[in-house]
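Regression test attached.
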Amino acid sequence: MAESPTPKSPSGKVFDGRLIRRMLAYLKPYRKQFWISLLLTLLLAVLNPVKPLLFQYLLDHQIREKDIPGLRLLILLVVALLFIQIIFQYFQNLMSNLLAQSVMRDIRVKVYQHIVHLRMKYFDRNPVGALQTRTISDVETLNDVFSQGLVTIVGEILQLLVMLGVMFYIHWQLSLVVLTTLPIMLIATYIFKEKVKSSFQEVRKYVSELNSFLQEHISGMYIVQIFGREKEELKRFKKINEAHRNANIRSILYYSVFFPVVEIISALAVALLIWYGTGEILYQRLSFGTLVAFLMYIQMFFRPIRMLADQFNTLQLGMVSADRIFKILDTEDFIPDNGTLDQSSTPFPAQVDIEFKNVWFAYNEEEWVLKNVSFHVPPGKTYALVGATGSGKTSIINVLSRFYPIQSGEISIHHIPIEQFKLNWLRSQIVTVHQDVFLFSGSVKDNITLNHPDITYEQVVAAAKSIGADEFIQQLPGGYDYTVKERGATLSTGQRQLISFARALVYNPKILVLDEATSSIDTETELLIQKAIEKLMQGRTSLIIAHRLSTIQKSDCILVLHNGEIIEQGTHTELIRNNGKYRKLYELQYA
Ligand SMILES: Nc1ncnc2c1ncn2[C@@H]1O[C@H](COP(=O)(O)OP(=O)(O)OP(=O)(O)O)[C@@H](O)[C@H]1O
Ligand SMILES: [Mg+2]
């Protein structure tokens, strides 16, 4: 997973207006919660500084004048205020978290939805791990921004301002005394904020390294064990863990230094206040109540400053995550889907033809993978593609389903260029059975239907029966409900292949594309698969990348690919008679 070592928000600012505005747009559906949460935060910011005022009043009036009923009333007022604060706090928390969780859900779904439609080329370039981090942990970071970042910062700043205002209003000289400690506090906070930020970023970097290491090594455990690399890989894992631990400890250290420093500074402020205040009281220039109120304010004053340091970090990390997420959402790496034709306008006949006309194709600009490829598969016929590894066989079927766009030439189905079809419909007409079968975790049945709601259980069983997969599926514990785990690790290669054939049959495509697996299997399964393939090809136009001699021999025509060019084509007998490349391949492989 390629994380940049020190991620920065694009502008490096905490308040990147463009990003914030974009994030706020996600709040729209939750406007009500947002305004309630903001309102409560603001109310709390104003209510909090009232308590010391009440105490001041109580000490200077009711206690001095021994006004017991008045005292009771004021104490009741303080208790009531506390209750109100608690209730407000509860709802504020509830609303802001509700809001953040909903926004997070929306963004995650949106990112996934976007990724699902990106073209294959994007996935060739972007590691799975990075995309995973985007949809999971980066979105999680945004959660903090929405639940405690934005609104809380506004509330805390307002509270500071209100407190300052009240303090200056009741006694400006005392306020100045308290404020003398503020610069030290601000400097300490700034240093702390910067240090913690960089160690947080480091922690995040190592977390993502841990993630990708584990992901890779657990999927590749087989290789690690086969080659006996356990010890060495463990060493590498230990090293990342060590770095992760150290980065975490660094941030904990900063916290453990910062908090006592804050304590010392506020103790200093208290000491100054008492020294100056008691003197003033003696000269009767200050009331006892005012001094107590100020002592309370000092406690309240430093807390928001400390919190602000944390919240600015949250916000900054949030900006980095938001930027990464928006980068994915801004990726317009789609296959253009401008076609208009589909079932309703151009229903295909039972059998269609496929034509490649002077097709040139490259994955990357530097290197042609298909060079001037032309061929025509008449309706209902089976064409086989043969050729050495890397000759471009899989690429031909990739461009037929428009997973990659071709650079020049034309591919048409039923005499219509494939770009004119709606992408979804085009792909629904072609079923590709791939070299490496991919099974999802879920039941065998769901793996055959791919959760298509219109495919019935009976159809699944019928397809499996005609493919010859029914027998082994019935023997699995639970039969069609047998849970496939981890891409079908508990099934054999042949069994997985048969399931994928059943999947193809049940979707009943007009065109069958088969990338036959090279892996050799036992003769019994081989026979089963052979039959299954024949069943699949029955009555439909098929393009088959064949390795099995029997498949090749039975096909209507063989296209021989060499370095992206079709160098020979004809039936098996014709090509053998030709004594060309095909004969060589054939003799190498089967003779
Ligand atoms: N996603 C990709 N991005 C860039 N290049 C690719 C990609 N897939 C394949 N290639 C390159 O294109 C060429 C043709 O590959 P292709 O997969 O079509 O071969 P193939 O004939 O199917 O081989 P095999 O018999 O081994 O499956 C190879 O040189 C390969 O390196
Ligand atoms: Mg291939």
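Expected vs. actual: identical. Residues 398 and 404 are 6 Å apart (CA to CA).
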